[in-house]
Amino acid sequence: MAFITLDAVKLKKNFDYLNNFFKQEGIDWSVVTKILCGNRQYLSALLEMGISQYSDSRISNLKVIKNIDKNAQTIYIKPPAKGVIGEVIKYADISMNTDFRTIKMLSKEAQKQGVTHKIIIMIDLGELREGVMREDFVDFYSRVFEMKNIEIIGLGTNLSCLYGILPNNDKLIQLSLYKQLVEAKFNVKIPFISGGSSVTIPLVLQGLMPKGVNHFRVGETLFMGTDVYNSTKFEDMENDIFKLYAEIIELYEKPIVPTGELGTNLEGETYSFEEEDYGKTTIRAIIDIGLLDIDMKHLDPTDEAIKYSGATSDMVVLDLGENDKKYKVGDLIEFTMDYMGIVRIMNSKYIEKRIINMENEESPVTA
Known about the structure:
Layout: E1 3-7, H1 8-25, E2 28-32, H2 40-47, E3 53-56, H3 59-68, E4 73-76, H4 85-91, E5 94-97, H5 100-113, E6 117-122, H6 137-145, E7 150-156, H7 169-186, E8 192-194, E9 196-197, H8 201-205, E10 215-218, H9 220-224, E11 226-227, E12 232-233, E13 242-255, E14 281-287, E15 299-301, E16 307-311, E17 316-319, E18 332-337, H10 339-346, E19 352-356
Parallel strand pairs: 1-19, 2-3, 2-10, 3-4, 4-5, 5-6, 6-7, 7-8, 9-10
Antiparallel strand pairs: 1-13, 11-12, 13-14, 13-18, 14-17, 15-18, 16-17
Helix pairs in contact: 4-5, 6-7
């Protein structure tokens, strides 16, 4: 049976590193938990680390967090759809917003539930994903400012996720200028400028982050130890917190080239083969995961001798070459994953989720 593991000790190391880093810089931060896909045991392990604020783009995930700890502060980090307004008010202490009509619905629902809902207004700084256009922002703010049971606690932006537009000092300082503008115009205080994410951490390290940016939303760097801006790894952080294990369910020596007329496979692909491979054989292993669970371009076997041959909905075929490691049916193949690989697997109900090194007790990695 295939399963994914989370190493709690390594995750705690990354958390401590980031928590100390942000404290030294005087920055508040929120953990983006969407990589965990609402898995209760993983979220419980995370909550034990002393994190006080959690961000997610799925209401169901925030609901799990609130069920674990009703006092945990939660942020809904995408513009709410009409159908989830009631749940946003119930399970998200804060939401990020870009549409006047949506905030009006949030206001009505907050009055209905007898609460004051906090919002962060997102501004588009060029990524062209969510965000109020800059030229419309002051008018937008003035309209939201009057709404009942709505408290504007911050301004924010998102960069790099859609088109890969990188943050820089000039873009982020604009958020601080908008903060100063509305504070002077409306005689208010805006506590948070939420312009930070995993991709902006290197700007802090280089001293290029405007002082006004005081709130970060961090997921990938926490869970993977990645320097997203430079597409590298931070040396002092762990980058293999998650690992995937899949069991070999068949192993035979077979030809490299299939026989018969070649058509397209279930993904619409047509294969071609090198002339030199005709007549040759290799050791081929089938493992118990498939395209329903994973996208193989996001996975890497830790054994570099193993090559990917192809996949169907429920099975992956691997080329073991001469099988120097003497793999056999029932053995586990270990994989590391990038961010999207982890999310895809975490979202599969067919992959078991395990924790290792929890409270200094390591769960056996066995099928």
